[in-house]
Specification:
2 copies of one chain form a homodimer. With 373 residues, the first copy, chain A, is of the alpha/beta class. Chain A is built from 15 helices and 16 strands. In chain A, helix 7 runs parallel beside helix 8 and helix 13 packs across helix 14. In chain A, 55% of the residues are buried.
Chain lengths: 373, 373
């Protein structure tokens, strides 16, 4: 446990500030991780990621297993060398993508058979296979193999939870690399008793971190918040909590207030490719004609390269002209916004004023300007 | 002429080394200018351009006139501020695009009427309009309005040349901004007598630089070289010569050996988007499976970010996965290659060994490895 550690440095309300130590560097928490699905955060170089102070990057085992192959990445020195990112990396188990992307799939207690969304070829993932693939990829933080069903169906969630717990134990047994921290995943949909059962089972595994899966997949915000509040009381204080796939500005604030430490989400980069900018006052549609003559930056308070260099008028021109640079510049801004927001949340926690910060944020965020302002 | 000057620093054979001074910085020549058609060199930030030591960037008046509009760019502070590029910029006159891109066009001695390739709207360009648009855009080097016909039709070239000369005089008369250097353009297709007539007419206008148009548009390499050799004897020594739209590695070497100082071309960035890399030994197709496990950089001798950070295997993965980063990383390398090549040509000229350098280059370049190596 010398290669990996979590140090809790402060609390404010239910919010937590800490530091996750990994073999490739420290991650001050709360932290937001950009998603590099195919071993690239779309439209950005690793240098861009360093400039916006990303501290953790996620990559997807399902995608990299299918293309270019985990064995190939291992032979090329592992994911850090392959994608040119020297900082901490987290890989998911592949489970979520099998259930959301694969063409057909068949689940049994041993694992999942599925067809590739790329070419229809037949594949099988088990807990042991997922951990072996993640060992080949070589990320700092890896995930137990789990089943992630739709959140509202009780019967499906019971069955999936039973498997997820079985698979967590098998994932742990298959885990070999001491330089990788294996996180197990709490599931249970929107059902308080299932979530409680899952939290107790997963916590008992004593993994160095705990992930919360199956949220932001169709439930309401109130349902998500209720689950997080219930889990906060049950999860161990001394291990980082990673809420998978969540990442709008208001979600970050609300979930940090409910005890979450780590986040990842494709939202900021996907929105960038759709020509939308995130701000602390809501979203801006950069295709709107209203921006065509606007010399102001996206956000006058933002220190990112995009806001320091370019006008809304220029960004609007790039979007209207379908130039690739639009996605790059908007991704820089959107990611930087979420990273700055988690840094500000961290400071507010360390200074004991999280609730004041959150209240001010909510007041601003509610004053959303209309699209295109 | 204090804002703009050309200083010839050395010759080797017919090759020239010099420095072009502009209000936004100096351009050591020979130099290659990346093309930023729509006020962005596709897939690159201005910082990338600075890193690869680009000294001059081209933008297209035709495209920027149609979208977002030259008046709008002027109101936003001109092209340098708009696109966030603080170095020298060159704009073309719009003539070439009207003849190559516009949906329909009608030429008379006064100018050209055409329909936009974007929305079919009707527009008219004249020498006066082109210079006014370029004044609004605010580049350091601007071009006289010209007609660029196919290179092999004698009658069309005679007629176009008569107009090009008329229009060069009118462009000069319309030129007002002292911080912009107006270059006139030599035309005449592949016909030695027309080229000679054009060189004498254009040289007599005493513009601070002379462009050579109508090459690399369908003629053979031998025809292009013959035109350049004929022009070299006729063009004034004390003004920079800009060969428009030329830019493969071997073209740069051969044309520098025939007295050319400035180049621009979409080839390196267009090839990057088509997943091909330029090297001094020919091209590499990065989609080829042969690269899938290759840990080597594109070019072990190249100092660019791409070659210093990523393997061919990773680049091949990005190309196969249709990731946007492929275009960015290959554009960085391809442009850097041409910029380094012009810098090496410059050194060879200053050291009086251009022909030796060119011979060694030709020997290497002829040893092209098969695609995918």
């Amino acid at each position: 446990m010398t290669l990996f550690a979590f140090r809790l440095e402060g609390r404010s309300g239910r919010g937590r500030a800490g530091v996750v130590r990994t073999p490739h560097g420290e991650i001050p928490t709360p932290a937001f991780a950009p998603v590099g699905t195919q071993a690239t955060v779309k439209a950005l170089t690793p240098r861009h990621l360093a400039e916006i102070e990303a501290r953790l990057v996620l990559a997807n085992t399902y995608h990299l297993y299918l293309r270019p192959g985990a064995e190939r990445i291992a032979a090329l020195g592992g994911l850090h060398a392959f994608m040119g990112w020297p900082g901490p990396i987290l890989t998911d188990s592949g489970g979520f993508q099998v259930f959301s992307l694969a063409a057909t799939r068949q689940v049994d207690d041993d694992g999942v058979s599925f067809r590739s969304h790329l070419d229809g070829s037949l594949h099988r993932l088990t807990p042991e296979k997922s951990i072996a693939l993640q060992a080949q990829l070589g990320a700092d933080i890896i995930m137990a193999f789990d089943e992630c069903p739709p959140p509202h169906d009780r019967r499906t969630n019971e069955e999936a939870l039973r498997r997820t717990h079985l698979w967590a134990e098998r994932s742990l047994a298959a885990h070999t690399r001491q330089d990788q921290a294996l996180f197990a995943i709490v599931q249970g949909g929107i059902f308080p008793d299932l979530r409680e059962q899952s939290a107790r089972t997963i916590a008992a595994l004593k993994t160095p971190g705990i992930a919360i899966g199956g949220l932001s997949v169709g439930e309401t915000k109130a349902e998500m918040h209720a689950v997080l509040e219930a889990l906060d009381a049950l999860l161990p204080e001394d291990r980082p909590r990673y809420l998978m796939g969540v990442g709008s500005p208001d979600d970050l604030v609300e979930c940090v207030c409910r005890g979450v430490d780590l986040f990842d989400c494709v939202l900021p980069t996907r929105m960038a490719r759709n020509h939308a900018a995130l701000t602390r006052r809501g979203r801006l549609n950069l295709r709107a004609a209203a921006h065509a003559d606007d010399p102001r930056p996206l956000d006058p308070g933002c220190g990112c390269y995009t806001c320091q260099t370019f006008s809304r008028a220029y960004l609007r021109h790039l979007c209207a002209s379908e130039e690739m640079l639009a996605a790059t510049l908007l991704s820089i801004h959107n990611l930087r916004l979420l990273i700055t927001l988690t840094a500000d949340l961290r400071t507010a926690i360390l200074e004991g004023r999280l609730e004041t910060f959150a209240e001010a944020f909510r007041a601003d965020y509610r004053k959303r300007r209309p699209e295109g302002e």
